[in-house]
TrEMBL record:
<keyword id="KW-1133">Transmembrane helix</keyword>
<keyword id="KW-0472">Membrane</keyword>
<feature type="transmembrane region" description="Helical">
    <location>
        <begin position="87"/>
        <end position="105"/>
    </location>
</feature>
<dbReference type="InterPro" id="IPR020948">
    <property type="entry name" value="P_starv_induced_PsiE-like"/>
</dbReference>
<dbReference type="GO" id="GO:0016036">
    <property type="term" value="P:cellular response to phosphate starvation"/>
</dbReference>
<keyword id="KW-1003">Cell membrane</keyword>
<feature type="transmembrane region" description="Helical">
    <location>
        <begin position="58"/>
        <end position="80"/>
    </location>
</feature>
<dbReference type="Pfam" id="PF06146">
    <property type="entry name" value="PsiE"/>
</dbReference>
<comment type="similarity">
    <text>Belongs to the PsiE family.</text>
</comment>
<protein>
    <recommendedName>
        <fullName>Protein PsiE</fullName>
    </recommendedName>
</protein>
<dbReference type="GO" id="GO:0005886">
    <property type="term" value="C:plasma membrane"/>
</dbReference>
<dbReference type="InterPro" id="IPR009315">
    <property type="entry name" value="P_starv_induced_PsiE"/>
</dbReference>
<keyword id="KW-0812">Transmembrane</keyword>
<feature type="transmembrane region" description="Helical">
    <location>
        <begin position="21"/>
        <end position="38"/>
    </location>
</feature>
<feature type="transmembrane region" description="Helical">
    <location>
        <begin position="111"/>
        <end position="130"/>
    </location>
</feature>
Amino acid sequence: MIKLKKDMSLVQIVPRVLQTVLNLSLVFLGIILSVLLVQELVVFSKILIQTKNSDYKLFLANILLFFLYFEFITMIVKYFKEDYHFPLRYFLYIGITAMIRLIIVDHDHPINTLFYSLVILILIIGYFIMNVTPRERPDSKWFVKK
């Protein structure tokens, strides 16, 4: 049972309740994604076992879908390991993987493929900028007056 102090106000209780709801929802989502990940492994193994089906597009699409599930589960794990914080780089990884999957699966229209490629380029440039930028914020040591 949760013990509440007498001096806790509503302003302190509401964020804790919402954080608990968010954490429980992410655990439930992680379980669902894990089930879907295992289901994707079963589908993937069926594709490998079937010798008649040599559709490499389906094969690659299923591999990338597997990695999308894997990345979402990894992001949820990182959320809990990094004190309830989603690292931005994982969103970029997921975006790049999703766009690559989209190019592999839906490459019938060249202009759409070009747009998807430009989106990947923008995500990679964003990732590069994020890695080049120093982790310290301006208020930490650069603007401290002596």
